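Q: what sequence does this backbone want?
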């Protein structure tokens, strides 16, 4: 899991029990400003400055569904490539069988 994903996970977990804006330093001192800016740029959180080098964050709707969407995308990728592999494999076997039958009939 990437560092910004760990940060998003912490924000989601904390915001589930605290529906108001989350003061990031109250969750974990290891949350980096770079991760927060990245999450804001991706549209996964809303970020507001609190003044004293602290930030309030609110997880957006796309941030809440981020991990579910990522999982669905991975499952779709696996299914698509699995079926492409199976169909390619089956067509290779079919061509081999048909060509051997045609060569035997000559």
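A:
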């Amino acid at each position: 899991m990437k560092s910004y994903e760990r940060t998003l996970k912490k924000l989601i977990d904390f915001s589930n029990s605290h529906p108001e804006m989350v003061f990031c330093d109250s969750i974990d001192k290891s949350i980096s400003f770079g991760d927060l800016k990245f999450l804001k740029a991706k549209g996964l959180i809303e970020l507001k400055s609190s003044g004293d080098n602290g930030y309030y964050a609110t997880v957006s709707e796309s941030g809440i569904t981020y991990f579910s969407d990522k999982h669905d995308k991975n499952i779709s990728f696996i299914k698509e490539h699995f079926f492409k592999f199976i169909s390619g494999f089956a067509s290779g076997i079919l061509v081999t069988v048909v060509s051997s039958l045609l060569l035997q009939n000559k």
